[in-house]
């Protein structure tokens, strides 16, 4: 368990949150998997005096979190998903890659797939968005697609390595040349991200995380199930998620004391539904 700012504890829970940080802006997006079939998009803008959270769309179906990405300015979200449809199989697009303006999930561009062998992608320098092919025949791979100021490029890519980039350095590769361990350093600490054995590439819990004190070389977080997602934002702050909670550690002393600013996304969703700002 983890100490919170009020001296309480944060229970370990089923992985439910995946975060995406904008590299060039004070913005983030979180997928909050409330249940196996229902996920909420929750936006965060921390450019003002106080963090501003926005509960956005709810999505019935399944996101593949390791194949999603947030644009550097935080204004465009690229995601791969499986829908929950009542239509017969041959009449529906069951899997698709889409681009939306978070936290609104409605697609600005939707690219359908037959299965999960393709799909998903990453934003790349030069205002390009790379999407793994394996497309439905309704879409022409030789065609020209542009969304939100980004050119869409189709390119094969090892799915497990979609998580490279964004400041992460590959430390180890597997036998097929795909990254399996990464690190990111900021403000006196280093975060290590390691692929868990036997986990599916579509799982929220694909990676485990370790945090080290750079000066002493000591381990702070041991890579267990305490946090199911971690990253470093553009201000050099550590952000972690466990259960429905997101915890922000502003600096190394806060990490060492295990005291961070905690936000419960479940409570954010409940409050938004009470005031009627999102569907009941």
Automatic annotation (TrEMBL):
Species per Swiss-Prot/TrEMBL record: Rhodobium orientis
Protein name: Uncharacterized protein
